[in-house]
Specification:
121 residues, mainly alpha, DNA polymerase, domain 1, two-stranded antiparallel ribbon, globular
């Protein structure tokens, strides 16, 4: 019989309930140094960093190259639980703004950019 636990969420990931044996084998597991480098950025916690690594984004340089919108779309493909808060956090990490400021001041432009990106534009 497996025990269930609720994993804490970072700004852009919903909490989920997983069995303890499954949590250890999660595809979100990442090499500690790669996830730590990403998590050290403003707004990015361990869960966000693991989601980035799971999506193949393994460095800050790669994140900068993709930009927040493309990186969010890539993460969303690999981690469906990712929320728009992750988009705000990614943009904040790249612009050195708190994710709350990004959500308040840049929400509309980011949503429009995401829609354009998803429509192949």
């Amino acid at each position: 019989m497996s025990t269930k636990r609720t994993t804490p969420s970072s700004p852009g990931l919903r909490s989920s309930t997983r069995s303890s044996s499954r949590a250890r084998k999660s595809p979100l597991s990442a090499p500690a140094s790669v996830a730590a480098e990403l998590a050290a950025q403003l707004n990015l916690g361990p869960k966000s960093a693991q989601a980035l690594v799971a999506a193949g984004i393994t460095s800050l340089a790669e994140l900068r190259s993709l930009g927040s919108v493309a990186a969010y779309a890539k993460v969303k493909q690999h981690t469906p639980a990712a929320t728009l808060n992750l988009l705000w956090a990614l943009e904040g990490a790249l612009s050195s703004l708190p994710w709350q400021t990004v959500a308040h001041e840049h929400r509309t432009s980011l949503l429009l950019a995401l829609e354009q990106y998803q429509n192949g534009g």
